[in-house]
Amino acid sequence: MKIMSFNINGLRAFESKCGGDINAWFNKMNCDIYCLQELKGSKVPFEKYKFLKDYYSLLSFHDIKGKHGVGTFLKKKTTFCSKSVEIVKGRILKSYHGNFILYNCYMPYYNGNKDMLVDDYKENEEFEDKIKSVYQSLEKDFIKHCDEKVIILGDLNAAYQLKDIFLYQQEYKKILTQGEKISYSIPLESNLITKINPSVLELPYEFKNFKSLLEYFFIVWQRKWLKNFIEKYNLIDSFRMFDQRTNIYTCWNIEKRLRPKNLGSRIDLILCNFKEVNYSSILNRIIGSDHCPVVTDFLVEKYEDNKNNLVNKEKNTLVNYLRKK
């Protein structure tokens, strides 16, 4: 069962870049399930994606047009799905596949600085709590299924290892080269030296040891949450089962033209709570977005239950779509 996760940064924009036919692109990539994030749309303009020839579509949109959006596209010939549930509108979509449960996630990012806030929470006094609530909603729902096979994937907007963000990886290498210069017992503030006019390709501080670098890394709340979440529930990072290399990223700052230099971060993950994985890879040669796809092949057979299979039972027709509305 091959599953792809891909933040496409606008479904219609990406479709135009890949030949104008997302159904044909799906067939070319040859996966069973496609989990797309940041669709940037609403129900009405996206009606046509309910009627793809070879794929059954599960879509979730934000209440505000053009915000967020996640979509799970299921190959009609090879997949089973009994139902789907919106955990957070436009952010987290859960689907049931008989022998596993799938969470398609597009998580918000916030680094603790209100001026750097991304998303529509900026004008809300409780913006930080709202962002945290998205992560907490995922964990709260996941707990219900701990005894089942679960896959959690998407743009998690966080890394949990230093080597997954080039800014931190280069500081780590610098400490390795120069050696540690101060005791671990000294507070973080005393281990930081502010750089004068740092470039966009470096962190604003010099770090005297690994501990201070790690503490600074986990100041970002999402990173700490993700690390604790993975460790608490013994989740497996499917890509890291097969590849421990550094400088393997899934997201780059396009405005600063960092992708050609491969200066990015690995924030698109496919996590699972079981070990039946054949392989996992990052398809960093695929362009059209500021992210690239991640694909994992799970050793999970198709669940056979034609009576309750939405993929076959409900044909993607305009009549069925309007009936649901």
Automatic annotation (TrEMBL):
<feature type="domain" description="Endonuclease/exonuclease/phosphatase">
    <location>
        <begin position="4"/>
        <end position="291"/>
    </location>
</feature>
<dbReference type="GO" id="GO:0008311">
    <property type="term" value="F:double-stranded DNA 3'-5' DNA exonuclease activity"/>
</dbReference>
<protein>
    <submittedName>
        <fullName>APN2</fullName>
    </submittedName>
</protein>
<dbReference type="InterPro" id="IPR036691">
    <property type="entry name" value="Endo/exonu/phosph_ase_sf"/>
</dbReference>
<feature type="active site" description="Proton donor/acceptor">
    <location>
        <position position="155"/>
    </location>
</feature>
<keyword id="KW-0378">Hydrolase</keyword>
<feature type="binding site">
    <location>
        <position position="291"/>
    </location>
    <ligand>
        <name>Mg(2+)</name>
    </ligand>
</feature>
<feature type="binding site">
    <location>
        <position position="38"/>
    </location>
    <ligand>
        <name>Mg(2+)</name>
    </ligand>
</feature>
<feature type="active site" description="Proton acceptor">
    <location>
        <position position="291"/>
    </location>
</feature>
<keyword id="KW-0464">Manganese</keyword>
<dbReference type="GO" id="GO:0006284">
    <property type="term" value="P:base-excision repair"/>
</dbReference>
<feature type="site" description="Transition state stabilizer">
    <location>
        <position position="157"/>
    </location>
</feature>
<feature type="binding site">
    <location>
        <position position="155"/>
    </location>
    <ligand>
        <name>Mg(2+)</name>
    </ligand>
</feature>
<feature type="active site">
    <location>
        <position position="106"/>
    </location>
</feature>
<feature type="binding site">
    <location>
        <position position="157"/>
    </location>
    <ligand>
        <name>Mg(2+)</name>
    </ligand>
</feature>
<comment type="similarity">
    <text>Belongs to the DNA repair enzymes AP/ExoA family.</text>
</comment>
<feature type="binding site">
    <location>
        <position position="7"/>
    </location>
    <ligand>
        <name>Mg(2+)</name>
    </ligand>
</feature>
<feature type="site" description="Important for catalytic activity">
    <location>
        <position position="268"/>
    </location>
</feature>
<feature type="site" description="Interaction with DNA substrate">
    <location>
        <position position="291"/>
    </location>
</feature>
<dbReference type="GO" id="GO:0003906">
    <property type="term" value="F:DNA-(apurinic or apyrimidinic site) endonuclease activity"/>
</dbReference>
<dbReference type="InterPro" id="IPR005135">
    <property type="entry name" value="Endo/exonuclease/phosphatase"/>
</dbReference>
<keyword id="KW-0479">Metal-binding</keyword>
<feature type="binding site">
    <location>
        <position position="290"/>
    </location>
    <ligand>
        <name>Mg(2+)</name>
    </ligand>
</feature>
<dbReference type="GO" id="GO:0008081">
    <property type="term" value="F:phosphoric diester hydrolase activity"/>
</dbReference>
<keyword id="KW-0460">Magnesium</keyword>
<dbReference type="GO" id="GO:0046872">
    <property type="term" value="F:metal ion binding"/>
</dbReference>
<dbReference type="InterPro" id="IPR004808">
    <property type="entry name" value="AP_endonuc_1"/>
</dbReference>
<dbReference type="Pfam" id="PF03372">
    <property type="entry name" value="Exo_endo_phos"/>
</dbReference>
<dbReference type="GO" id="GO:0005634">
    <property type="term" value="C:nucleus"/>
</dbReference>
